Amino acid sequence: VGRRRQGYHGGRGELVVVVDCTDLERAARFWTHALDYVDAGGGGTRYCTLLPSDGVGIEVLLQRVPEAKAGKNRVHLDLRTADLAAEVSRVLALGARVLTAKPLEEFGWEWHVLADPDGNEFCVIQPPSGHWDEADR
Amino acid sequence: VGRRRQGYHGGRGELVVVVDCTDLERAARFWTHALDYVDAGGGGTRYCTLLPSDGVGIEVLLQRVPEAKAGKNRVHLDLRTADLAAEVSRVLALGARVLTAKPLEEFGWEWHVLADPDGNEFCVIQPPSGHWDEADR
After folding, report:
1. Which of A37, A38, A100, A113 has its CA 20 to 30 A from that of A19?
2. Chain B residues 76-95 with CB within 8 Å of chain A
3. Predicted confidence (pLDDT) per residue in A20-61, tens digit
C-alpha cells in the first residue's frame, strides 16, 4: 500500500501526533476504530504506530507512559463531522466518555467534548453548514 | 489554491490538531514558520487556523485559553527530520526553548524535547538511517 506521509516545511520532515496512554492495546483499539487507522505495530512495549488505513495522512504514535493524566490536555484532536449526534454515538460505542451534558455552540459550530479511554480530551464538532464548500472555493 | 484536508474514517470527517495558547499572534508566528504553514486567520480573537502552505495536510487550530499551562502535555507533535542538529537550531531561532541538555536516544532514534512559546512540548526527532526508505517498501 502506498503511503503519503504528512510532511511539513516543504518536505523537510514528517509531522506526527503523539498521544500518551497507559495501556497501548486499549488505546490502539480505540483510536484505530475512531479514525479508521491501522495498527502498524512496532515500538515494542513502549510505542505503537497507527497509520491511516487509506495510506494518506498523519501518523498517530501512541506512547505508553507511567504517569496518569492530570489536568486538561493543552493539545487535542478535533473530529469534524457533518453529523454530530451520529458521530458522538459512534465513538461512545468504541469506549469514549462524553464530558459535556449538552452540545457547546459558538458561531454556528456545535460540539461535544469527549475523553478517550485514557482521559485524553478530544472534540467531535460539526461545522456550520457550508463550511467545507466555502473552504473549497 | 487547492486544499486536500486530513480526512479520517474514509472521508467521514476531517481530523484537526488543536493547540492551546495564551497569545494567538505569537503562537501563529511560531507554528507557521516551524511547519511552513500559513495563517488563514478566522476565528476572531479566540481561534486561528493554520494550514499547510502547499495545501496538503492537517489543519492546526490555535485556541486562546485563559489558563496557563500546568504539567506535561499528554498529546504533542513530533517533527521528524533527517538532520537533528540543523532542525533544532532552526526552531530555536524561531522562539522555541530546548528542554533536554543532550539528545535522548532509543533504538537508533535521537531526539530533543523542546517547548513552543507557550511551553507546549514538542520533539524534534531523527529516525535511524533507512527509516523512511524501509517504510516505503
Report:
1. A100
2. 76-82, 87
3. 999 999 999 999 999 999 999 888 899 999 999 988 899 999
pLDDT at B136 over 70: no
What mean pLDDT do residues A81-96 have?
97
Q: How far is CA A88 from the centre of its chain?
A: 13
In degrees, rounded to 5, the angle at the alpha carbon of residue A113 between the alpha carbons of residues A110 and A119 is: 165
The answer to whether residue B52 neighbours chain A at the CB level (below 8 Å) is yes
Measured between alpha carbons, how far is B21 from B24 in angstroms, rounded to an integer?
A: 6
pLDDT band at B1 (very low <50, low <70, confident <90, very high): very low
B131–chain A Cβ distance below 8 A for any pair: no
Q: Alpha-carbon distance B28 to B26, whole Å?
A: 5
Distances (CA, A) of B20 to A110, B27, B40, B103: 19, 9, 17, 26
Alpha carbon distances (Å) from B10 to A38, A57, B13, B14, B18: 12, 11, 8, 10, 21
The pTM for the full model equals 0.94
Beta-carbon separation of B79 and A13 below 8 A: yes
Of A48, A78, A107, the residue nearest B45 (C-alpha): A107
Rg (CA), chain B: 16
Higher pLDDT, B134 or A118: A118
Shortest Cα distance, chain A CAs vs residue B96, angstroms: 16
Distance CA A41, CA A32 (A): 12
Residue B137 distance to chain A (closest CA, Å): 9
Question: Is residue B135's pLDDT more than 70?
Answer: no
Contact status of A68 with chain B (Cβ, < 8 Å): no
